[in-house]
Amino acid sequence: MAKKGILLVNLGTPDSPSTADVRRYLDEFLMDPRVIDVNAALRTFLVKALIVPFRAPKSAKLYKEIWDDTTGSPLKYYSILQRDALQQRLGDEYMVELAMRYQNPSIEQALDNLKNALVDSVQVIPLFPQYASASTGSVYEKVMRLMKDWPTPPPVSFVNSFYDDDLVIKTFAENARKYDIASYDHILFSFHGLPQRQLVKADHTHKHCLKVADCCQTINDNNKFCYSAQSYHTAKLIAAELNIAKADYTVCFQSRLGNDPWVQPYTSEVIHKLAKEGKKRLLVFCPAFVADCLETVYEVTEEYGAEFKALGGEDVQLVESLNDSPIFIDALERMVRNN
Q1: Residues 152 and 172 grouped into a single domain
Q2: Which of 10, 99, 226, 316 is the most exposed place for a label (fewest CB within 10 A)?
Q3: Could you report the per-residue pLDDT of 9-43, keeping only the tens digit for each?
Q4: What is this structure's pTM?
Q5: What is the 3 state secondary structure string of the chain?
Q6: Structural domain tally of the chain?
């Protein structure tokens, strides 16, 4: 009996924390025209001559800090657990494959596996709660580019985003309840950053993004596909689930690259501001990630933690990502069955 194919796709991770493997990963990632969306000649110069040669050795050291000798990178480890748990939930009617947009397991191999299994449909779930051209959009493009050469491609569908999925919101809230939320002076919802120009490109009206005051604060028809607006809405829903007052949390954005303006406020600047106000303990959500990774385990816990303490703060506590939570697997199962 033919099966329904499910393809889970996360961003990616180096094959090892060696400088060579990190260089290979960064090169593939940053050469994607949806990630660094400038002309090809400039992108090649920036990536090949400036960014990767200097960043790869530094990033390799950071990956070594979070790498487990048995399970490897946390992102890949939790992604595998998500795939296996979803397969178990769905049963023999479905075939669940995992791929990374960059490096391994590759989208090419995962699609070949589904093709060889003669699946009668393919549903693609990019594992990014909020839509962005540089993440979900890049997965769309890669999958369609590969499948267009299939002589008889089956029906294909995509999950666009799940930033407001009630089970995803519940999972983040349940993870936060492990901590005494009231004992923290302030809550941060720190999302991965994007260049502002990518937000502007997503505004099909050309009249809303960065032209209307507080343009991202509330979801509406003009910004419903905007990464920043979806991020603010995710934070709002988690805060409501936990009864966190608006004055007690801040939405901010991390991991910027280069000198162009990115989505603001920047997490680092917010941390400085809170330290100056005398805040001592911060609880940090990273709701752009479904699995803990370098940007959560190291950037938030280690880098921002050290930065905050140097400014007089005492504690930066990361709320774990969705990882292998059974509630998140419930959400994935519902996405599949409802499609």
Answers
A1: no
A2: 316
A3: 999 999 999 999 999 999 999 999 999 999 999 99
A4: 0.96
A5: CCCEEEEEEEEECCCCCCHHHHHHHHHHHHCCCCCCCCCHHHHHHHHHHHHHHHHHHHHHHHHHHHCECCCECHHHHHHHHHHHHHHHHHHHHEEEEEEEEECCCEHHHHHHHHHHCCCCEEEEEECCCCCCHHHHHHHHHHHHHHHCCCCCCCCEEECCCCCCCHHHHHHHHHHHCCCCHHHCCEEEEEEECCEHHHHHHCCCCCCCCCCCCCCCCCCCCCCCCCHHHHHHHHHHHHHHHCCCCHHHEEEEEECCCCCCCECCCEHHHHHHHHHHCCCCEEEEECCCCCCCCHHHHHHHHHHHHHHHHHCCCCEEEECCCCCCCHHHHHHHHHHHHHC
A6: 2
